[in-house]
Amino acid sequence: MAYIRTPNDSQVRYRHQCRSSPRCIVVALSASFIAFNWIVFHAFKSESSSDNSSDPLSTDSSGKPLPTNWLDTATERSRGYRASKDWQGQWYRWRALNPSKIEQQTDDLTKFDIVYTWVNGSDPLFQTMRLDSQNNHPMFQKSLRENAKQIDSTTKRRYRDTDELRYSLRSTFDYASDLFRRIHIVTAEVAPNQPQIPSWLIQKPDSPIQIVSHKTIFPNSSHLPSYNSLSIESQFLNIPDLTDTFMYMNDDIFLGLKLLPSDLWTPLYGYVLHMEASLLVPPTVRYFDPNAITVGEWHSLQYSNYLLSQRFGPRHRAYIAHVIHVLSVSMLKEIQSLWPDDMEITSSHQFRGVGEGKDIHVSFFMGHYIMEKLRETQLESFWQYRLDTNQDGVLDWEERRRLIDRIKIWNVNQDQVTSDRRQHSRPTMIHAHKATLDRIGIRMSGTTLYRKSGLDGYPYMLRNADTSKTIPTATVKDRDGKDVLPQIPYRNYEPVKDRKCKLDVDFCFGPDFVDSTYPRIPAEQTKQIFSRMAFKEFHCGDCLLEILMQDPYRGGMGAWMPEDETSQAFASVVEKVARYNYVLGTSDYSFMALQGAKGAKKDLDILLAKWDQKAFFCINDDFPDDPVVENEIQTLFRDFLNTRFRLPSPYEIVE
Ligand SMILES: *[C@@H]1O[C@H](CO)[C@@H](O)[C@H](O)[C@H]1NC(C)=O
Ligand SMILES: *[C@@H]1O[C@H](CO)[C@@H](O)[C@H](O)[C@H]1NC(C)=O
After folding, report:
1. Where is the composition biased (Low complexity) (predicted)?
2. Which partner from 51, 153, 435, 496 sits 20 to 30 angstroms from 234, CA to CA?
3. Nearest CA, atom 3, ligand 2
4. CA–CA separation, 407 vs 414, rounded Å?
């Protein structure tokens, strides 16, 4: 049965992919990595070493200025909840909630927009335009000569229109009408000022459905027309009048259970990210075969992870589940301000595979950027405001010894058998989250389960990682001589008591840090130690964060947040936590590829039988290139859609 993409299926497929391309190249990251992070740390330390320095929030920790209006948009995101600063501080520091301080605005302001990408590939104007672009694009010249027919059928398949948008929109009106404010359909222009408009769409001035042409969102019109979803997604941040947080849907995704705004973001728990940690994206650039006809998303995923790895550490990162993608305009702007060249280059890639597929995959990138920034905020805050007790920028032996002693006690405790191991008694950040949200009038749909808050530690810490050495990124041989990934994270949202890590202070902090005869580590060197520990040897940083949060004696927010809650430092940490806060969520979904009439019928019937179970399903209509089979499957598919989503949406012309 091919229809449900369980994590295991995906893993098998991914491994298969990896094995079949033995030339997967490994790029040495270290040198540029250290240099980059040194600069990063340098910027953050010098910037906030005195309380009256410039506002630390107006720059990213790499020292680059953030988009000037980001505070506005951050406020915009939570504009439904006019929240005071001390409300947030109390919430993060103590999990204390004072509902009277969170004044909820009208319902409409707490809703989010939905963005669809769509083109009508059956439109002759579109087809002419596409052929034209292909004939003029250097990437196609060689293969055009050699294999014109195959290219044509592959690209045709990618753009075939089975009227999915109509039904996907029906599913949105059926299940997400309490979530969305507006729906933006991002589409191609087939003639000047003539964007494609679904033939059945009723356009009214007060309609929540807006057509947005690529031309509107691409500042550089020489990148158009674009047939590359990655390039189009990279320009979402320019969609006019878009809510800061929004949901991105492809027209082959259908909703099957009720969704509410709390499935995307809440003021208490931040973004709700859906990830698939059994499917891991390597931190290395993927080998690009210039003769390949189709280029999937893995080149862009790996390239995105390569960029993230240079900045935050060379780890395998979880695939973003192929369901709803939560995106944010202010986050995308921040990413654009930090990786301007890569965002521009992604925009310029008219076809998948141009530039060897070195694209920023915005959904994957943003999800992991948020995860890393929250982690960085926590570790930085500890290093800067708690480890350096007297705040002189220098680490003396007394300051270091306190941390080393604490880690020693932690390590001994980690060696105990589970029943003897001491646990901290602090409730996790998402403990009783449904009731807590209820107190400020936010309902949960039940469709997404909140599984893990980023504030409780890095969710995908490596399983029993050996912190006495660098973890390789390429596969290693296990005892039986089999190639295995050396980086296996905790990925099933294991309870805290089931997670273990020991921190090797000698390796993680280096010889000077643990040398009692070395009286004072100067500021520059502490920065280097920090960025090596936090990023390059990321498993050290993960474990330190685990210790800070879970230490049975002193663990918790108080272990890393600035002590003085009235200080500027505290306010600035709270502001960053609010900006990057997130939970990982899961929901039940299916991924189905329709191939062969018999199998398709069976799969679709199963989906109907599971009417009330699947939160989302993605149906890939990449059917075989045989007109008879194609017709048969298309009819089955359409019958299914008409049964499953019977009611026309309010903006649909009904024949
Ligand atoms: C797509 O284009 C074809 C050909 O112009 C047209 O018949 C069809 O109605 C269009 N589909 C939609 C959903 O607009
Ligand atoms: C627009 O994109 C083209 C092609 O990538 C580039 O050469 C040009 O400099 C860009 N223009 C601007 C204004 O950025």
Report:
1. 47-62
2. 153
3. 222
4. 10
**pLDDT tens track for 425-445:** 888 999 999 999 998 889 999
Closest ligand 2 atom, residue 344 Cα = 5
pLDDT digits (tens, 9 = 90+) for 279-337: 999 999 988 887 776 778 899 999 999 999 999 999 999 999 877 789 999 999 999 99
> Which three-class secondary structure state does DSSP give residue 263?
helix
Ligand 2 atom 9, closest CA: 220
Q: Which ligand is nearest to the CA of 354?
A: 2
In testing the pocket of ligand 2, which one of 220, 342, 348 has its CB within 8 Å of the most ligand atoms?
A: 220
Q: Cα 276–560–100 angle (5° rounding)?
A: 85
Six-digit token string for 128: 């002419």
pLDDT higher than threshold 90 for residue 654? no
Q: Is 222 in the pocket of ligand 2 (CB under 6 A)?
A: yes
pLDDT digits (tens, 9 = 90+) for 188-215: 999 999 999 999 999 998 899 999 999 9
| Type of residue numbered 641 | L
Q: Is the beta carbon of 198 within 6 A of some atom in ligand 1?
A: yes
Per-residue pLDDT tens digits for 119-129: 998 899 999 99
Highest mean pLDDT among 242-246, 416-420, 629-633: 242-246
Counting other chains too, the contacts that 469-474 makes at CB distance below 8 Å and 24 or more residues apart are: 469/507, 470/537, 471/537, 471/539, 473/26, 473/282, 473/283, 473/284, 473/314, 473/315, 473/316, 474/26, 474/284
For a pocket test of ligand 2, which of 348, 351, 358 has the largest count of ligand atoms closer than 8 A to its C-beta? Answer: 348
Q: Give the position of tokens 């490994």.
A: 26
List the structure tokens of 234: 């990279």
Instruction: Collect all residues with Cβ–Cβ distance below 8 Å to 308 and sequence separation of at least 6.
Output: 283, 317, 365, 368, 369, 372
Place of tokens 């936590």: 577
27 CB burial (10 A radius; 0-12, 13-18, 19+): middle
Residue type for position 158: R
| Distance from C-alpha of 212 to C-alpha of 65, rounded to nearest angstrom | 30
Ligand 1 pocket mutation pick from 116, 118, 122 by most atoms within 8 angstroms of CB: 122
Give the Cα-Cα-Cα angle 222, 228, 233 (nearest 5 degrees).
Answer: 90
Q: How many CB atoms lie within 10 A of CB 612?
A: 7
Ligand sitting nearest the alpha carbon of 350: 2
Q: Ligand 2 in contact with 171 (CB < 6 A)?
A: no
Q: Is there an atom of ligand 1 within 6 Å of 168 CB?
A: no
Q: Is the CB of 348 under 6 A from ligand 2?
A: yes
- What's the pLDDT score for residue 6? 30
Nearest CA, atom 1, ligand 2:
220
b/e string for 65-80 if b means 16 or more Cβ within 10 A? ebbeebbebbebbbbb
pLDDT at residue 556 tops 60? yes
What is 109-370+585-644's CATH number? 3.90.550
What's the CA gap between 27 and 474, in Å, rounded? 10
In this prediction the pTM is: 0.87
Q: Is 334 in the pocket of ligand 1 (CB under 6 A)?
A: no
What's the mean pLDDT when you consider all of the chain?
84
pLDDT over 70 percentage in the chain: 82
- DSSP SS3 for 182: strand
Q: What mean pLDDT do residues 14-22 have? A: 27
With a 6 Å cutoff on the Cβ, whether 199 touches ligand 1 is yes
**Which residue among 161, 197, 641 is best mutated to probe the pocket of ligand 1, counting the most ligand atoms within 8 A of its Cβ?**
161
Here the tokens at position 337 are 């301000």
